Prior knowledge:
By secondary structure, the protein is an alpha/beta fold. The chain has 19 helices and 15 strands. Helix 11 (about 335-345) crosses helix 12 and helix 17 packs parallel to helix 19 (about 540-565). It is globular. The model is unreliable at about 1-15 (pLDDT under 50). The structure holds one RNA strand.
Amino acid sequence: MPGDGKSLQLGADMMHLVRVIEGQIADAMKNAAGRAREAGDLQFAKVPDFVVEVPREKAHGDFAVNLAMLLARQARQNPRQVAETLVRHLDTTGTWIARAEVAGPGFINFTLDHRWLYQVPAIVEGQGKTYGHSEVGRGQKVQVEFVSANPTGLLHMGNARGAALGDSIASLLSAAGFDVSREFYINDAGNQIVNFGKSLEARYLQLMGRNVPFPEDGYHGQDIVETVQNIINLVGDRYLDWEPEPRQAALIKYALKEKLDGIRTVLEHFGVRYDVWFSEQSLHDSGEVAATIAELQEAGHIYERDGALWFKATAFGEEKDEVVVRQNGVPTYFAADIAYHRNKFQRGFRWIINVWGADHHGHVSRMKGAMAALGYDPKSLDVVLMQLVRLFQGGELLRMSKRTGQYITLNELIEEVGVDAARYFFVMRSADSHLDFDLDLAKSQSADNPVYYVQYAHARIASILRQAAEMGHQLPAASECDLTVLTDPSELDLLRKIADFPLVVEGAALALEPHRLTRYAQELATLFHVFYTNCRVLVPEEELRGPRLVLAGVTRITLANLLGLIGVQAPDRM
RNA sequence: GCGCCUGUAGCUCAGUUGGAUAGAGCAACGGACUUCUAAUCCGUGGGUCAGGGGUUCGAAUCCCUUCAGGCGCACCA
Length: 574
């Protein structure tokens, strides 16, 4: 499951205003506990780890602390009593804490001086396009490998989900201060390529008028026929009388290039660009697969049985061992994948993230076992497993099969739904949940689609700023305004939400959960729309108009940065 | 049979390290446009968090168990 980067060393990051506030509260509580003990009012050995959290209920203040409940047992007092004692010893000088009160079973609720929020716009303005970024990653090298679809066909819905998820995860990690590399692993070796060659050959001969059977488990897709037609347009009958082996090799070479170019192009249309395209075949050619197996062998993790070489996966908690070299001497996909991941570690990545379909989950733990066998920390490898996409049309489940060529491609999805809606839709759900993609709904482009709601907030702001400019009112800097006139609850709520953004990004990045972004996006857009309804921005009074323009401006920056992380446009007009 | 994921409002889903009266969108119903874009806002109704047991100040969350669905358990990838 999505990891938490625990194997990495994370630096304390004080760029986040909200975290500073939380730190103030935590420190004040620790000090209060210390003073209470000195005064003999409380007995305890050590201050337990407590949380500073935002209560669900607004009436419970801005932040709440559960320390009293955790201390109750040690102190042999009831939690509320402990809480009263802590509050009595609380010193809030030098903090934004305005009030602390005991509530419920022993919570201490903190209400802040709301003026802390007026610091927010200057921070957003100052950071601009990087607002929301942080340094937790401390420049450590991270690799995100995603899609890695077989180059024997077109991209389907599952690949599309992987593309949207992987790209957003990479963007998030980059924003969190990691040095991120996006990588596509090209499965250009193994049985499927052999199969691919046979399919190409059969189509070639058929198109040239020969009556030959098509391999039953071949690739039936129409796109293969088109690829072969393209080849014929180039070379004509040149391969007609070749031996099967060189003929297939020649066809594969051409078709692979065409297929990969197609994949690259459609992914670029989808807004995804890779840093590295890594060939599986290159691992065989360079001898890395053999070297990896030799390394495992030397370490005593390999044995021979029935003429094949086996990896002792059971020594790493697996239920059964795995073949790495077949009886016929050909290494398995698993062997190549071990070599691939070894290669990743050798390239210096501190954190390796793979986005895989749930149908590969059996592969995860043995892969980690193999990494452990090679002496790498398996915790540095995180696999985001995404559940498969089910496609619905007309209320019915569409069965998809790449083998039979019956599936909706990413090309078609982009044409019908558009990049923004598709990417938002895929990222909206956690990778863990099955995704039911209703084509009719997505096609309808109705207001049901939440991406429009968020984009509309951005367009509205752009419109306001445009009209302000036409009236001769440039967007002022936060420092030029007295922001304390922003006192409407909708204004304060909006500022509060904007202040949260950096922590949302950081949390989503470390948890590898981009769906937190769309949730936040929905909330931020709602608060803007409420503000828009309740507070007119373009009022005659400059001392009110200026601050509201500032607020609109920083909302716009936050929305744009947010949508950028998902790969969705932030339009100025809709 | 074993393993992984899922089960939360009519539907699609959030719910962070265990916190207070479980949320959002859509759908339904009722309101708000001589005012910066109504692709918006406000309000109402809607729950046995699949069932059962346990852990504790406190459980949708952790543990056990039953049920239901998905996926995996190849000398395929």
